[in-house]
Structure formats: C-alpha cells, structure tokens
Design goal:
Helix content: 25-40%
Number of helices: 5
Order of helices and strands: HEEEEEEHHEEEEHHE
Oligomer: single chain
Radius of gyration: 36 Å
Number of strands: 11
Shape: elongated
Strand content: 25-35%
Strand order of the largest sheet: 7-6-5-4-3-9
Largest sheet: 6 strands, antiparallel
Structural class: alpha+beta
C-alpha cells in the first residue's frame, strides 16, 4: 500500500511585541524635558533681547523727535520788530513796533525759552495772533531726568504781554507754575541738557550772567546770538535701571561712569542759526 508523501516542515513561533522599559521611558522623558527647557530659555533670551532693543529704539526715537521739535520751535523765533521807516523819522529812532518783551532767554545754560510763531489749534483769534511762549528744560523726577516742553498758547502769552507794565520779563512770560502753562514730558531718561551760544564768527560766547535775556528794547539791550547749539544725552530704560541701582542722586547722573550705560546711551545735538 502506497502512502501519500507528507511535507516535513517547522512552524515558527509568532514574534512577541517588545515594549519600552521604565528606565528607557525615564531617560527619553528627561532628554525631552532638557530640550524643552533649553528651547524655552533660548526663546526667552531672544524675546528679552528684542524687548530691550525695542525699548532702546523707542527711547532714542522720543529723544530725536524732541530734538526736531526744538529745532522747529526756535527756527520760528519771533524777535522784537522795529520801525525802520525813514519818512517821517520815528522819534526816538528806531522804535519797536511790538511790545517790549524778553523774547529769548537762557537760564543756567540748561533752560531755553522764547516767543515763537506757533499757531495753537483753534485758539488764536486775529487780535491775539500766533505768538506763543515755549521753552525746554530737564526736570529730576526722583529717580531719573525727563525732557519737558513748557508751552503757553497765544491767548495767555498775549495776556501776559498786556498785563506787563512796560516790559514783559522772562518771569512774566516763562512761568513754569502758571495755571495755564503746559509742561509736557517729551522724553524720559534724558539728562545733561545744555545750550551754547555763538557769535557771527562762530566763536563760543558764554554769557557772563544768567538769565541771559535777548531783547534790543530792554533796559539793558542784548542782541540775539548768531546761533545756538543744543545738546542732551539720552539712554535706554535698561541703562537707566543700571544707573539707578548704583545711585539715585541727580548729581551722580551728571558724572556717571560711562561704562554703566554704553552702548545704551547717545548724545543728541543740533545747531540753530538766527542770522
């Protein structure tokens, strides 16, 4: 009897699924956590750097805008107008047409004021004109300096001129504490505000006394300088915090160690010609 052939073979066992061990999971979790922390630290550092850069840019942008406003205001300086007619000859010749006033004043070489032609929005009437009192100075705020703009509109400036007995002095026109005066902050972290005056030959002419009042019709006539140079320093808020951590005295701000603020400080300077 013939038996059928049977195939001889082996049945391979099914492979078993291999899982991660607890040690491997802990190692992988630790590595992932380290990577996440490193990425978060790098991201935070980048965001802080970007924030400090933006703050420095904003601080310098405010300072530059303030410098441009100073240039605009004092380029429109309104001096005393004089009657230059020759027939008939004015008596006594020449005679001022406008009311005598301290139309340009420097105080302590760190404050500048003047009468400028600035038309305030909606306020001037034809009888008042557009002559306003304006000034710039730095004020210590307890922990920093700020650059401020003093401003009295044409109506109140005209009133100050009218109320003056014979001469509108700088104390009448440029009263920082006047109820109608504005003292707006233009830029923070600004210090060492200085004004230098020059003659027609370009020579520095430091005043012998302050306040330095320019008005040809004053009791003691003083001519307007040929040019003035205005400069001040500005720093970023980050640099200001560094300085304040060392000292909060205004005197120390004037003589601070430049290594504390570099490269987060900048000097702004402009020259305005009057002649």
């Amino acid at each position: 009897m013939i038996r059928p052939n049977k195939k001889v073979g082996f049945i391979l066992p099914m492979p078993r699924e291999r899982a991660f061990t607890l040690a491997e999971l802990l190692i992988a979790t630790g590595i992932t956590a380290i990577i996440v922390v490193l990425l978060g630290t790098m991201l935070g550092s980048l965001l802080n750097t970007a924030s400090r850069s933006n703050q420095r840019i904003d601080a310098f942008r405010e300072a530059r805008a303030a410098l441009q406003m100073i240039e605009r205001d004092f380029s429109n300086l309104v001096p005393t107008q004089w009657n230059i007619q020759t027939s008939p000859v004015p008596t006594p010749p020449p005679s001022p047409i406008t009311r005598p006033a301290a139309y340009f004043a420097l105080k302590n070489n760190q404050q500048i004021y003047g009468l400028v032609a600035v038309k305030a929005a909606g306020s001037p009437t034809p009888s008042v004109g557009d002559v306003c009192a304006v000034g710039y100075y730095c004020r210590w705020e307890g922990n920093r300096y700020t650059l401020r703009r003093f401003f009295r509109d044409s109506a109140h400036t005209f009133s100050a001129l009218q109320n003056a007995v014979s001469y509108a002095a700088d104390s009448d026109l440029y009263d920082l504490n006047a109820a109608d005066a504005r003292n707006d902050v233009l830029a923070a972290y600004v210090w060492n505000f200085k004004v230098a005056i020059y003659d027609a030959s370009g020579n520095l002419q430091p005043p012998t006394t302050y306040p330095y009042i320019c008005d040809q019709s004053a009791t003691t006539p003083t001519l307007l300088p040929a040019a003035i140079e205005i400069s001040f320093n500005a720093m970023s808020p980050q640099a200001a915090r560094t300085v304040m951590s060392v000292s909060s005295s205004p005197a120390d701000w004037m003589t601070m160690n430049v290594n504390l603020v570099n490269p987060h400080t900048y000097q702004f300077r402009t020259r305005i010609n009057f002649q």
